[in-house]
Design a protein that fits this description.
The protein is of the alpha+beta class. The chain is built from four helices and eleven strands. A hairpin with a 3-residue loop joins β10 and β11 (148-152). The N and C termini lie far apart (47 Å). It comes from Alicyclobacillus sacchari.
Amino acid sequence: MKKIIVDGTVHPVAGAEVYTRGDAPGIAQLAEDLLAFIPVYCNGNRTMVVTSRSLFYLPWRCQWVKTRVLQHFAISQRDLRRACEEDLNLSLFTPLAIASASVVYAPIKVREPISRNDGAHGYFRIDAIRSADAISAHTTRLTIDEIAAIDVLMPRTKVLARVREARSSLILHCARNVPYPSL
């Protein structure tokens, strides 16, 4: 399979399918194979999804996809954030730790927001990141398996820090040996 380079300039990328609300696959079909989901502008706010087999666009915002993935695994976003605050002293840019699947997604900035509350961070499965190469002082190219290379708007050191925080979050989540408590 040819690796697709996504540099944030043109969407949709060549060869990627753009789904509408009527024909989009459900999150339950995608959850186990999700390598990255990234907010993009493509006829409005959409989510670019990278799986082990393909790259495509969903008609929903990235925040919606994140919420549905957490719901699929029965995880409360609020409880996950509280646990990260407690364990890692981290309240913003909380990693998505899914202990039942031994998977964690690191939040990484992929675009400049156009307006207030416009999503700028995508979520990358840390075990799918094959390399993080600095392109400039403020841009890093992440290679996601052999599927895609995605340019992110963060220095390499910050990307690696986010990956470490995500890994620590998963380790601590698994060490609790119980789901994060709901208050």
